[in-house]
Amino acid sequence: GGQNFRPDLPASSQELGGLNRSETRLGIVGALNSVGILIDDDAVDALVDLIRGYPWFLQLYGQETWRAWRRRAVTGPITIDDVRHGERAARTTVDRAFRERFSRLPPSAQTFLIAAAQNADAAGQFRIGEVVETLGLRDQRQLSPARADLINHHQLIVPVGSGRLRLVLPHFADWLRRVAATEPHAVPPTQ
Question: pTM for the whole thing?
Answer without folding.
Answer: 0.81
